[in-house]
């Protein structure tokens, strides 16, 4: 990679709260930022005018992604399912196909994604995910299986990927870099709470952390009760 101050990164899905936090963290580090968002959301990035490059368009459009990731050292992708037409899958595939060789690829998703089937979920968590997935698909709002398929493709890729699996999110001032475990069910994750600004921080930090290459860390806030009670967590 280039020296940190000269990194050029692309943030896909930049107009949402998580994306905007990632932009701030990246700019604080002196990175060049290319932001991708749908055309109707460009206005949400007005306060970054002059500091970032914006590529408007659907994030699952290969041509949009090809233009945005050109010459980038890293790509941060907010992998949010949208609608019932495999938007997340299309977005992930476009990034995998068009990011420069050797680029660091960091994707966001929820705890419900499992890489190796060894995650242990509470009954409440499992029932909640099933209920939300059923209701959302019934009204054709979103298909959670879209994110599952998107991550399956990422996991099968030989690129330098990281999939950051987030707990429940809350707003508030930064508490610092979240801690992580390879598997949901680890005691360190029990609090199931992370500040959104710190989720974004973990995503940006992952760009320069080679120990996270081809890992799917499940994260939790570093100041939550479970993290403080289990300091051996990552």
Description:
The protein has 234 residues and is α/β, with parallel strands linked by helices. It contains seven helices and ten strands. Helix 1 links the parallel strand 1 (8-12) and strand 2. The longest helix is centred in the middle third of the chain and has 16 residues, at 123-138. Residues 1-5 have low confidence and may be disordered.
Structure described in brief:
The chain is an alpha/beta fold and 234 residues long.
Q: What summary fits the major beta sheet?
A: 6 strands, parallel
Distance between the termini: 24 Å
**What is the string of SSEs from the N terminus onward?**
EHEEHEHEHHEEEEHEH
What is the approximate shape?
globular
Low-confidence stretches: 1-5
Q: Averaging pLDDT over every residue, what do you get?
A: 89
What is the strand arrangement across the widest sheet?
3-2-1-4-5-6
Quickly count the helices.
Answer: 7
For the secondary structure, the number of strands is 10
Radius of gyration: 17 Å
Overall SS class: alpha/beta
Approximate strand percentage: 15-25%
Provide the fold topology:
Layout: E1 8-12, H1 17-28, E2 32-37, E3 53-56, H2 62-69, E4 74-78, H3 87-98, E5 104-110, H4 123-138, H5 144-156, E6 160-166, E7 169-170, E8 179-181, E9 194-195, H6 196-206, E10 218-220, H7 225-229
Key features?
234 residues, alpha/beta, 6-stranded parallel beta sheet, two-stranded parallel sheet, 7 helices, disordered N terminus
């Amino acid at each position: 990679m280039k020296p940190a101050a000269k990194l050029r990164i692309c943030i896909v899905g930049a107009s949402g709260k998580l994306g905007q936090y990632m932009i701030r963290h990246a700019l604080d580090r002196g990175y060049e930022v290319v932001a991708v968002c749908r055309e109707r959301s460009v206005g949400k990035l007005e306060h970054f005018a002059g500091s970032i490059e914006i590529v408007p368009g659907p994030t699952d459009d290969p041509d949009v992604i090809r233009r945005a990731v050109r010459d980038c050292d890293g790509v941060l992708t907010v992998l949010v399912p949208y609608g019932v037409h495999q938007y997340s899958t299309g977005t992930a595939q476009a990034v995998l196909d068009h990011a420069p060789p050797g680029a660091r690829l960091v994707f966001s998703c929820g705890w419900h994604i499992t890489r190796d089937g060894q995650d242990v979920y509470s009954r409440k968590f499992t029932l909640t995910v099933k209920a939300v997935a059923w209701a959302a698909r019934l009204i054709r709002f979103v298909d959670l299986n879209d994110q599952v398929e998107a991550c399956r493709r990422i996991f099968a890729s030989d690129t330098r990927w990281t999939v950051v699996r987030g707990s429940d999110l809350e707003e508030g001032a930064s508490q610092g870099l979240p801690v992580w475990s390879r598997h949901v069910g680890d005691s360190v994750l029990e609090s199931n709470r992370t500040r959104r600004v710190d989720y974004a921080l973990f995503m940006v930090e992952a760009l320069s952390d080679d120990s996270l290459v081809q890992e799917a860390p499940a994260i939790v806030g570093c100041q939550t009760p479970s993290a403080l009670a289990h300091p051996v967590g990552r």
